[in-house]
Amino acid sequence: MTLCTPDRTTTRPRVQRPHSPPGGPRRFRIATVDVSASIAVFLIALPLSLGIALATGAPLQAGLVAAAAGGLVAGRFGGSPLQVSGPAAGLTVVTAELIRLYGWRTTCAITVLAGLAQIGLSALRVARSALAVSPAIVHGMLGGIGVTIALAQLHIVLGGTPQSSAVDNALGLPAQLAHVQPAAFAISALTVAALLCWPRLPGRAGKFLRKAPAALVAVAGATAVAVLAGLTVPRVDLPSWSSHALPGLPEGPVLGIAAGVLTITLVTSVQSLLSAVAVDKLVAARPDHGLGIPRTALDRELAGQGMANVVSGALGGLPVAGVAVRSVANVTAGAVSRASTMLHGLWIVLAALLLVPVIDLIPLPALAALVMVVGIQMVSITHIRTITRHREVVVYAVTLTGVVLIGILEGVALGIGVAVAVALHRLTRTRITREERDGRQLLRVRGQLTFLAVPRLSRALHQLPPGSDVVVELDGSFMDHAAYETLSDWTAGHLAHGGKVETTGPAGTRIAEPSPGAAPHSCCRPWTPWHNHQCGEPPAEPAEADGAGADRPAPGLKLASGIGKFQRNTAPLVRDELARLAREGQRPSQLFLTCADSRLVTSMITSSGPGDLFTVRNVGNLVPLPGEESGDDSVAAAIEYAVEVLRVESITVCGHSGCGAMQALMNAGPDDPTSPLRRWLRHGRPSLERMASRRHSWARIAGRLPADAVEQLCLTNVVQQLEHLRAYESVARRLADGSLTLHGMYFHVGEAQAYLLGGADEPHGHDAHDSHGSYDPYDEVFTRVMPTGPAADPAPGPEADPKAGPEAGPADERSARLETAHVS
User: Fold this and answer.
1) How far apart are CA 691 and CA 19, in angstroms?
2) How far from 371 is each of 48, 71, 356, 511, CA to CA, in Å?
3) Who contacts 551 (Cβ-Cβ below 8 Å, separation ≥6)?
4) Which string of DSSP letters, residue by residue, matches 745-793?
5) Dihedral sign, CA of 311, 317, 319, 322?
6) Which of 138, 331, 402, 753 is the most exposed place for a label (fewest CB within 10 A)?
7) 741 Cα distance to chain centroid
8) How far apart are CA 20 and CA 163, in angstroms?
9) Nearest-angstrom CA–CA distance, 723 and 690
């Protein structure tokens, strides 16, 4: 395959706005798959919008207005191209209460004000802070709303009328069960049965039939039965659009209206942002990995939701939020752009104008049963299991109960209070135990080591016999400076009295401790550069030479001096480990492919030791496509050996700032003379083309655009070389069976800061990505790796464990915190 040299103008794209694709604006095109996806979403949205409007007590047209505004306005201006917005079940309770207190026209005005508040919040760029709310609080809030909805709609299912609160609905349920309306109950039962059974139809015919949405089938089937059987049940009654109620000036107490605006703003914003993050995960999990689909820009999404709420409220519609069910249907149907969301809004408008006679045939009990099932599904068993594993079930239960019994804002406030109390309890709960085992003193510390635990830690340490052999086992993810100083001072004193101390993690992994007698600020550190560094020794005499060279060291003197220091200081420490590796052979867990730049010291920036990394270095950290090396198969051979023979578990491609190879690649012209360097750099041309392509979003680093075109190319090159790796048969086979992962990394030399590829926003930072930064082929986001606890302190002295690789020590990447960032 011949790669054409890109034009110079394409290799230096100008800086774009954060949400603009490189190369200028795109022409609006509608893909066929977007049309089919929009129809699937429309068929789900139509009955749900009517059902939610019925549950709130609003005019039924209000649900259609909100669905149209969500599709057309939020779909066009939002930051999540595949998220579908509209009236959400999570807003049912809030809206119903506002209508009861202030009336419909004031509720529409409150919706407009909430939309303006969302636009203001997006301008302040606070969208990401909504993701800091504990998942237990969010799921507890949604679960409480679901319980409230289910209790209210159950009365309509049984042929009655719901009360104003969940408590009243629960207390009135026995009386309602004694006066069931047979026709309404029959229609509702048929709707529920269709909703539950339709997705489980077996066989080939069932697979074909399941393409129709269960919600549409359930409501259409119930409507057909009611019409054909002549059942007397309440039906949808869409009044004339000429009498449609529009918003008026807010009437009521100022504090009450302000609380309503705040509630609508918070619920719609949090639900929309969490749904957008979930949509990103669904898109990345598709077989095409979301090729060409940009990830969510959270602040832009918040602004889009605000615009939709302003339009919906102004036109007499319900509050709008991003909704999970319709968004999942959109992604599953294969949508590739925001055209599908906008088209679904267009179909809603056409249905509201042309299908009124058909809509008027729908029985209200069928819509109530549909919304009741949706409410029950909001109490997710999967979420409860996850929350239980994280020991936050108390937060979930308190939030759910508070929402049901008191209200949404009050329930969320209770949940936040309990979550803070639980966090403080965990922070202060530290268990310290001591026992003797095989002549050794074992001191176990369970929990976080903060200054609050220092008195107990100090007392336990000083109760250990002087001169004894001690193992200190730390089982926690955090140690503050006070605890670290206490442990370090005691260790130094114990070693000075002839004792032995070994500090380990929870799995027995050794943590390096300060060497005895080392000066607190000794200049001798493993990371100290060997060149021009004497470490307290007198400088070496310059080699004798004639003339101008008399004052210069002889060639190789610095290198020989460094080797001598290794033999004297380091070799005794690593000799046993290297002897073991010589006997057993190498078994590295990672292939680390990086640039040949002299400023990149792989063992330093990865805290690795002998036997940890299988390292491949070349100019530009390039991975030639299979068959493109033209006689030099060194990189391909290294990849094959690492993957097939050494069976590494991961491959990392590491680029760096100020890469001379990337600078040379950008400056190369088509008429430049051929040289070995230019022939090698042709493997980087796909990175140039990717950076100039309109199909890919620009890479971002820690929430910002790259500083210049060279840094942009350095980042893009990491992403492109990871794609080249996937073209290797051995790599693709290991990726398919799940035994190999790919990672991208960028090292900023001037900042001494590492960044990992793929830190997409996830709800609350829990299970969105693992802490290893697993590679997503089209997630061009680099996130900063943050030091925690003792890892932020100066490195230990020469007595540090030589095997303290990536799987050991307080700098363990598994405990690193990632600063989340998003690409537009």
Assistant:
1) 15
2) 7, 20, 21, 56
3) 542
4) EEEETTTTEEEEE-----GGGSSSS-TT-B--TT--EEEEEEP-GGGGS
5) negative
6) 753
7) 18
8) 50
9) 11
Q: Are 461 and 433 in contact (CB under 8 A)?
A: no
Provide the pLDDT for residue 193: 92
* Closest-CA residue to 771 (of 822, 811, 713, 804): 811
Name the amino acid, one letter, at 573: L
Asked whether the beta carbons of 764 and 135 are under 8 A apart, the reply is: yes
pTM beyond 0.85, yes or no: no
Strand-pair partners of 617: 594
**With the C-alpha atoms ordered 682, 684, 689, 692, is the resulting torsion angle positive or negative?**
negative
**Amino acid letter, 629:** E
Q: Which amino acid does the sequence have at 581?
A: L
Picking from 531, 535, 555, 534, the residue whose alpha carbon sits closest to that of residue 543 is 555
Angstrom distance (rounded) from CA 113 to CA 108: 9
CA distances from 752 to 437, 542, 818 (A): 43, 32, 16
Of the candidates 672, 697, 693, the one whose C-alpha atom is nearest the C-alpha of residue 682 is: 672
CB atoms within 10 A of CB 459: 10
Which of helix, strand or coil describes residue 726? helix
161 touches 109 (CB < 8 A): no
Collect all residues with Cβ–Cβ distance below 8 Å to 123 and sequence separation of at least 6.
303
User: If you count them, how many residues does the chain have?
Assistant: 824
* Residues facing 388 on adjacent strands: none
Enumerate long-range contacts of 494-502, CB under 8 Å, 24 or more apart.
494/464, 494/466, 494/470, 497/466, 497/467, 498/466, 498/467, 499/466, 499/467, 499/468, 499/469, 499/470, 500/468, 500/469, 500/470, 501/470, 501/471, 501/472, 502/470, 502/471, 502/472
First to last CA, the chain: 32
Return the DSSP state at 73.
I
**Lowest mean per-residue pLDDT among 365-369, 490-494, 633-637, 758-762:** 758-762
- Give the tokens for residue 241: 């659009």
The 10s digit of each residue's pLDDT in 341-359 is 999 999 999 988 888 888 8
Q: Which of 694, 685, 690 is nearest to 712 (CA)?
A: 690
Pairing type for strands 781-786 and 817-818 reads antiparallel
> Which residue in 598, 637, 601 sits closest to 619, CA to CA?
598
Report which of residues 595 and 709 the model is more confident about. 595
Between the alpha carbon of residue 706 and those of residues 14, 720, 745, the distances in Å are: 12, 17, 15
Q: Give CA–CA dist 392/403, Å, rounded.
A: 17
**Pair 11, 688: CB distance under 8 Å:** yes
Q: How many whole angstroms separate alpha carbon 89 and alpha carbon 73?
A: 20
The helix/strand/coil state of 182 is helix
Q: Is 508 left (phi over 0), alpha (psi -120 to 50) or beta?
A: left
Q: How many helices (H) and strands (E) does the chain have?
A: 32, 15
Contact call for residues 594 and 656 (beta carbons, < 8 A): yes
- Among residues 406, 410, 417, 450, the alpha carbon closest in space to that of 432 is found at 450
618: helix, strand or coil:
strand
Instruction: Give per-residue pLDDT as tens, 83-131.
Output: 999 998 778 888 988 998 899 999 999 999 999 999 999 999 888 776 6
Q: Are 330 and 199 in contact (CB under 8 A)?
A: no
| Cα–Cα distance, 367 to 372 (Å, whole number) | 9
Contacts of 574 (CB under 8 A, 6+ apart): 609, 610, 802
Residue 19 is predicted with a pLDDT of: 40
φ, ψ (nearest 5 deg) of residue 669: -110, 160
